[in-house]
């Protein structure tokens, strides 16, 4: 029971850290850097540019979903809880870490949606006239969580068995 409690505490701590960093960065952008709102060139391919996303990823369904921001916030909260529960059941620490990052990112965007009806975005990467959709710290946490889970799923058998399968179970002499 103690191992499960420690595992859940670690998951919640990681998710909370992602949430706090996301909300702190959004507060800094809204209250300090972007007062008044503007585009701030940082590098030849990166701006700080304030935006508000009423849709889901990349602004999809923004016109439809802006009428029900609280419903979408509740859905994201449910997803975050589901990821925390899922993370508490896995034995792989990489998978657990990735799921906790996704939960924290979902919570960060849910807080925005509940408080202001839209998610605050401010990171703008571009090349020439082409701009990647503006995003935020919660989106970074979610993306890193997905990459971590992919890494975990691709390497778990090898990590579980130690080194490569060849060292663990060498081929018989007559097959070499």
Can you give keywords for this protein?
176 residues; alpha+beta; 4-stranded antiparallel sheet; 62% helix
Distance between the ends? 48 Å
Q: Tally of extended strands?
A: 4
Number of helices: 6
Structural class: alpha+beta
Rg is 20 Å
Unreliable segments of 5+ consecutive residues: none
The share of residues in helices is 55-70%
User: Could you describe the largest sheet, including whether it forms a barrel?
Assistant: 4 strands, antiparallel
Total discrete domains: 1
| Average pLDDT number | 87
Order of strands across the biggest sheet?
Answer: 1-2-3-4
Q: Can you write the helix and strand succession as a string?
A: HEEHHHEEHH
> Approximately what portion of the residues adopt beta-strand conformation?
5-15%
Question: What does this entry look like structurally?
Answer:
- The longest helix is centred in the first third of the chain and has 32 residues, at 2-33.
- Helix content is 62%, strand content 14%.
- The radius of gyration is 20 Å and the shape is globular.
- The protein has one domain.
- The chain has 176 residues and is an alpha+beta fold.
- It has helices at residues 2-33, 62-65, 69-89, 93-116, 137-160, 165-168, and strands spanning 39-43, 46-53, 119-127, 130-131.
How are the SSEs placed, and which strands pair?
Elements: H1 2-33, E1 39-43, E2 46-53, H2 62-65, H3 69-89, H4 93-116, E3 119-127, E4 130-131, H5 137-160, H6 165-168
Antiparallel strand pairs: 1-2, 2-3, 3-4
Helix pairs in contact: 1-3, 1-4, 3-4, 4-5
């Amino acid at each position: 029971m103690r191992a499960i409690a420690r595992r859940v505490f670690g998951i919640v701590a990681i998710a909370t850290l992602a949430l706090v960093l996301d909300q702190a960065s959004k507060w800094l952008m809204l209250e300090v850097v972007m007062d008044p709102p503007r585009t701030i060139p940082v590098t030849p391919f990166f701006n700080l540019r304030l935006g508000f996303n009423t849709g889901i990823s990349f602004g999809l369904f923004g016109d439809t979903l802006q009428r029900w921001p609280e419903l979408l916030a509740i859905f994201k909260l449910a997803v975050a809880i589901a990821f925390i529960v899922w993370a508490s059941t896995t034995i792989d620490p990489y998978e657990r870490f990735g799921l906790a990052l996704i939960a924290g990112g979902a919570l960060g965007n849910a807080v925005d949606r509940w408080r202001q009806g839209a998610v605050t975005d401010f990171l703008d990467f571009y090349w020439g006239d082409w701009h990647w959709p503006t995003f935020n710290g919660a989106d970074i946490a979610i993306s890193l969580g997905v990459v971590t889970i992919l890494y975990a799923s691709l390497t778990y058998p090898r990590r579980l068995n130690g080194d490569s399968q060849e060292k663990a179970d060498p081929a018989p002499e007559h097959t070499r």
